[in-house]
Amino acid sequence: MEFMLNNKPVSFDIVDSAGSDHLETMPAPDTTILKMLRKRGLVGTKEGCASGDCGACTVMIGEANNDGVLEYRAINACISLVGSLANKHLVTVEGLAKKTTENEQQLHPVQRAMVDCHGSQCGFCTPGFVMSLAAVAEQASGRKAQLELDEARMKVLDAISGNLCRCTGYRPIIEAGVSVLTGSDINAVGDTVDDEVSNEILRRPHPISSEAEAAGEANYYRPRSLAALDALVGRLGNKAIVAGCTDFALEITQRWRAYQNLIDVTRVPELLAMTEADGKLTIGAAVTYTDIEQQFKDLSPGFVHLLSRLGSRQIRNCGTLGGNIGTASPIADTPPVLLAWDADVVIRSCAPEAIATERHIALSDFYLDYRKTRLQAHQYISEIRIPTQSIHRFHRFYKHSKRLEDDISSVMGAFCFDGNEGQLIHARVAFGGMAAIPLRVPIVEALLVAEKLSEDLVNQACRILTETLTPMTDVRASAAFRADMASEMLSRALFEYLGQSLPRVDELKDFGLRGVDDV
Amino acid sequence: MMSNANPESRLNQQHESAVKHVTGQAEYIDDLPEWPNQLHVATGKSIHAHARLKKLSLDKVRSFPGVVDVITYADIPGDGDVGAVYKGDPLLANGVVEFVGQPIFAVAAISLEIAQRSVDAAVIEYEVLEATITPQDAMTKTLFVLPEKRFVQGDARAAIEQAPHRIQGEQYVRGQEHFYLEGQICHCMPTEDRGVHIISSSQHPTEVQKLVAKVLAIEFNQVQVEVRRMGGGFGGKESQAAALACTAAIFARRNQRPVKFRMPRQDDMVQTGKRHDFWNQYEVGFDDDGLIHGVTMDLAAMCGYSPDLSEGIVDRAMFHADNSYFYENVSITGFRCKTNTVSNTAFRGFGGPKGMMAAEAMIEDIARKTGKDPLDVRKKNLYREGRDRTPYGQIVKQHVLGRLVGQLEDTSDYRSRRDDVVSYNRVAANNGTHFRKGLALTPVKFGISFTANHLNQAGALVHVYTDGSIHLNHGGTEMGQGLYTKVAQIAARAMGVSLDRIQVSATRTDKVPNTSPTAASSGTDLNGMAVLDAVNQIRFRLTKFCSEHFGCEQSEVSISDDIVSVKGEPYAFAEIVKLAYMSRVQLSAAGFYKTPKISFDFGTQSGQPFFYFANGAAATEVIVDIRTGEYRITQVDILHDVGESLNPALDIGQIEGGYIQGMGWLTTEELKWDEQGHLISNSPANYKIPTAYDVPPIFNVSLYDEANTEDTIYRSKAVGEPPLMLGISAWCALRDACASIADYKLSPTMNAPATSEEVYRCIREIQNAQGAECALAQGEENAKT
């Protein structure tokens, strides 16, 4: 396997590299990028939590897009696996500053701004912030016009949403980021990666066959076709599947589990596609939240806004829709949305020696019990299909969490309505955090279409809702509060449907919180 | 390197490690190269809050592939108790476990993963004992780690009873996880003299040295402890770092191999102490003007299973239960409750914030009762001439508060914003809309000095080399606060040389001995003065040498801007240094400082515990969704008193960071144990410190322009802890928004943190109370007719 590390090629071989200058032994499949980096002496990238919550390990990953242009994204190195790096460019904090002479270095504009704005105190989180800001600067480097202050601030807040700092109070870090994005001194890391070696590693066309570090007992597989993936899942079972790893990697870093075989599905074209046909929007299971945000920008600003509160930018750059469904967490953010939109999941079955088959099941039939789904060992989710009609209906997605940003839902409510003049003909009411699985509440849905909407009907629906659901008390919220919030969300969605404006605090425009005085 | 041409830029000198931070070149302990034979440590932990160990079988742990050594309490060569001040903290459980997560045995293995995996192979049988998890429960059972203490001035009971109005209140204020980004860690190398060299992430290297020596049963002089920098401390590495070093040292000695002990985040959150939960109760008597006549307060702290630093922490809560207000008749009692939870420890403010929370809640209650703006009640009760005796007898001398609060009231435009907030809320109430605004301006007065008197001392070591470069050591540790930067600035200023001559290096117990912890905001005050003493000695010797060598008066010699001027003739500093060396002048000095004026006798409540007070005030505005309790903090204005600032940029950094940390403590950071004593907020996935998004978009910070009247280092004031308590204004603003629901006539019992769930509960409480009051009023009305 080959990749670029701070502009230099690295080759991992599957056999012992003794006697070779540039080949190194491939680390075990469950090795995180962070661990690999620190073993190599690149210790600028820090471990703060090993769970993707603090961002001290943030690095940039560059990947050639269809035009061969390298696009860079920030990710958490602590929960990303080395095998995912094949043919990508990994940039760490050591790779930003340019050495000018033996003792001098020219700081990257983000580094310069962080120093000038007093953006570091203890310094431990600093490399992570620098990388997050460098990634957003990189993305902004191609643009013509300078960013307005407010827009720059929003971009900076988004970029550092997964970086915790316990010393500074963030104000100088935000200022540093804004000063770079509103300035003219943005340089592109990608521009420097252009020689033959890097072209060979980063931009060469790939064979459409299975590819794996396939020797010995430990393997990190990177299938490049659905057929190759089917064969692997048939042989190894779906427990070996990894995509963004944002949940899976915690088994390794928090529960100290070891894995011999992993199947990385993020190079299978079918799982990366987003297509619209036959009245359905089909999203590949390995499509990341960041890519979904792009797709839904005009389609559903409400969904995009919800995604802005799902994890952090680093998590959204890795985490996938299929993963969010497949882990079957009762507090995952997207399943209630997909339930409200009547989405299907496409399940591929690939028992060994058999021809792979595909079937669609409604997401509402997918979940069985706490962390249990209909998926059998030789099955996996390949696609999620949403009726486009659903997306065009009135919908509201509400998330309640202790912290507004980068926090897990205590209650997640999703609502989709359609009707004429106050009479609903279509109602979907779905929740996360209110039972052992994400679920729809058919009894309430039926009530809502039974008669014309009125304040009485709303109250009645809320009452039945709280009688029906069985939330629990845990570290995030009490059962009683969850019940109140679920009911509040339902009534808010209905009143908004009826034309009232009930924005939530996270919907207020950030800078100066404009819009507040309009209410 | 940095330019020093402009004195202003020198004042705002960047952090000495800033460039190293942003390039990843700043080295932390986990970044040190690993030795091929290095061992890694993990501990086997109790799953019960209180139990007797019936059986401990570690055979399968010992035989786990890759495990090299396993130890229990019996294997500790010396004293197995690592209590910081009082006994009570066994390094490994000795027959009984007293909290979930308590280390029972420790493993050293060839990798961290193996060490962590191996501990699950232990077979442990427990006899479960009754556990106490809350301070309320401990109060009922009268379980304390140390006896209660009380401050009394005047006759509080009589004053309350005779006052026109009386209020009783209570609040539960939860603790706080430090969440330093660098978790607890140390590295230990056995030395050839049967001792150990330890590199620790510790705020208190001397205590690490002392405890490691005791655990190994060796002399203090066989242990060297070194701290270059910490990735954050906040009090969490004052006493807590020592246990890791002691465990690592035992393995290093037994195996004669280097040992690293790094706690993964979850172990760190479960196994190390935090800020105490406090259950505060108060009763106050006051008049129509809101003037306080008498106060009683009971402050009950959840100390955990052992004393650790809880004596001083609850003392400091008591010392700050007045915050900025004069209590003529007062009785304050502090209780140190014993609970079967991890032993709570120092955290920025050291109990002070908990006492202040009681004071601020009480002030607001008075305001609601008297119908006054809470700011007017605050101003009415501020310390001033003649009303200046604290509950512990010390007289407040430098009266900063009145002027400072008045100035912030103007610059934050408090009065007109108050009007806007009130009218916004009235319109919202009439229209039935769901947003309410809140605004609060709260002061902070924080006593500076360790209340353990002997800790108010510091040492320094300064070397001038013959090329004119200067090497500097002192007893303080760098945890991000910029201590090394400030001390280097002090040395440069005192010597009259440029900052780039000064090299500050790691704090080491073999360079400056018997140091105090870098705590109590004292780092610069103490170590800056010790360095000044050392520099002054060398400067005096150079001056004396010049006068002798060049044949002039000492007054004709001066050093500034790297130039030694002798009778008006300029010489390069390095040239004079070299000349002095050739003439056998000593170019090294040890400096020392002890804080003057302070002494306090708890028994007679006489003396002066604090050298001076640091002050500040913050005005915070919030917007709350009353349907959900969700909110945003929209604006904060801060004016803070750092005396003559040594480095305004660093001071503002401390103020901003302190405010946000205090805001986090009182808003989203919710420490929670379940009924069995498991910490359920045990990871960053469920314990939420603020992110950048939580930072108020309008965030104005200014320094109050007045020198310290006490003779501190260049008349500056300590800045580490006091700004944390500015965050109380955020909590008060949320409570203010809730109070608006009953048109500011009622105040909800708001516990902390004010999560959206707690704010929602308060809103319902107020709505219900208002409903009840309306019903009552209606009933009275009906009765009349």
CATH architecture term of the largest domain in chain A: Roll
List low-pLDDT spans of chain B: 1-6
And the CATH topology of the largest domain in chain A? Ubiquitin-like (UB roll)
Fraction in helix of chain A: 25-40%
Report the end-to-end length of chain A measured between terminal Cα atoms. 57 Å
Please give a structural write-up:
- The complex is a heterodimer of chains A (519) and B (785).
- In chain A, helix 3 packs parallel to helix 5 and helix 4 packs across helix 5.
- In chain A, a hairpin with a 7-residue loop joins strand 14 and strand 15.
- With 519 residues, chain A is α+β, with helices and mostly antiparallel strands.
- The radius of gyration of chain A is 24 Å and the shape is globular.
- Chain A contains 18 helices and 22 strands.
- Chain A starts with a strand and ends in a 22-residue tail after the last helix.
- Chain B is α+β, with helices and mostly antiparallel strands and 785 residues long.
- Chain B has three domains: 172 residues, Aldehyde Oxidoreductase, domain 3, CATH 3.90.1170; 341 residues, 2-Layer Sandwich (Aldehyde Oxidoreductase, domain 4); 138 residues, Aldehyde oxidase/xanthine dehydrogenase, molybdopterin binding domain (Aldehyde Oxidoreductase, domain 4), CATH 3.30.365.
- In chain B, strand 21 and strand 22 form a beta hairpin.
- The radius of gyration of chain B is 28 Å and the shape is globular.
- The interface between A and B is large, with 88 and 88 residues.
List keywords for this structure.
heterodimer, A: 519 residues, alpha+beta, Uridine Diphospho-n-acetylenolpyruvylglucosamine Reductase, domain 3, Enolase-like, domain 1, six-stranded mixed sheet, 31% helix, disordered C terminus, B: 785 residues, Aldehyde Oxidoreductase, domain 3, Aldehyde Oxidoreductase, domain 4, 3 domains, eight-stranded mixed sheet, 20 helices, 29 strands, globular
